[in-house]
Amino acid sequence: MEFMVYRDTWMKYEYEVDKDFTSKLRINIDITVAMRCQYVGADVLDLAETMVASADGLIYEPVVFELSPQQKEWQRMLQLIQNRLQEEHSLQDVIFKSAFKSASTALPPREDNSLQSPDACRIHGHLYVNKVAGNFHITVGKAIPHPRGHAHLAALVSHESYNFSHRIDHLSFGELIPGIINPLDGTEKIASDHNQMFQYFITVVPTKLHTYKISAETHQFSVTERERVINHAAGSHGVSGIFMKYDISSLMVTVTEEHMPFWQFLVRLCGIIGGIFSTTGILHGFGRFVAEVVFCRFRLGSYRSTSVPLPDGHTSNHLPLITDNSTH
């Protein structure tokens, strides 16, 4: 058992202020929207009013929104893992240890050659943005620069064709690490109305990961969700689409895999061996004491005193003295 403990490892978490403000933040994206590619546009706008267009690293691929049986099974298993991760936070340590060793978490390709015409758009790739808070969004129309930010050419798209049902196959920040499951992986949302807004509020935490298998700089994040129907008459204003508003934490987490040092293993092993010898010595001494008491009592019982008559008619219970005359 002690050797099993020695072989086991654990994750150590350390926190410090993130002093890197000049580097770029990489966003890895793989999202499928239930609209044709010519009707949607994706880009990033940060607090510094810097616009990063999707042409800088994203690919628009026409696909079928309905998943194949194998892909549905993959999504079901991924959602089960996400539910367990929300209940058992310690499983995150297991995922860190198995990074680069476990199977890829990417959506597998279709195993059936569907003859159905593409009715959705898969937007995948990566973008490099400033390390400040920003807003990655997918909405109707392609983005165009604007003096006060940017705008989308949505006037030529009919409202009846709006459908922001979407599936997030992967969303992560920082270096892409196979085997790491992120909070939004496998998320699927079905729009109940044409004019519907989906919002994700994300807090990104810079993370340095050091295990016996890898050493990488990545980012963890937490997310809260909100969705609502855009109805200006009812006071629900906004723009239909998918909006991911992210903010960068000022703290950086360093996750290090550690295990028991060999010298500590030897000390604990010697302690166990010494304890066994001490315990057996105590038991042996106690057993010897009990045995001596018991056997000595029986031995004294075999030497009982006898009565000796005296000349004056009295008796003596003392044993007669042994002298030289009596010996002869």
Low-confidence stretches: none
In percent terms, what proportion of residues is strand?
35-45%
| Chain-averaged pLDDT | 81
Run of helices and strands = HEEEEEHHEEEEEEEEEEHEEH
- The helix fraction, in percent, is 10-25%
Annotation, overall tally of beta strands: 17
Query: What would you report as the Rg, rounded to the nearest angstrom?
Result: 39 Å
Shape: elongated
- The number of helical segments is 5
Q: Whole-Å distance between the termini?
A: 73 Å
- The secondary-structure class comes to alpha+beta
For the biggest sheet, the summary is:
13 strands, mixed
Pfam family, one: ERGIC_N
Keywords: Endoplasmic reticulum, ER-Golgi transport, Golgi apparatus, Membrane, Transmembrane, Transmembrane helix, Transport
Protein name: Endoplasmic reticulum-Golgi intermediate compartment protein
Main location: endoplasmic reticulum
